[in-house]
Amino acid sequence: MRQYLIDELRVEDQDKLRDYFKKNSKESGFDDIFWIELPNEILNSIQKDHTDCMPFYVAVDLEETFISIELLIRTRKSMRCECISYADNNQRDWILEHIDSIFNKLSIIY
Question: Where are the domains of the chain?
Answer without folding.
Answer: 3-105
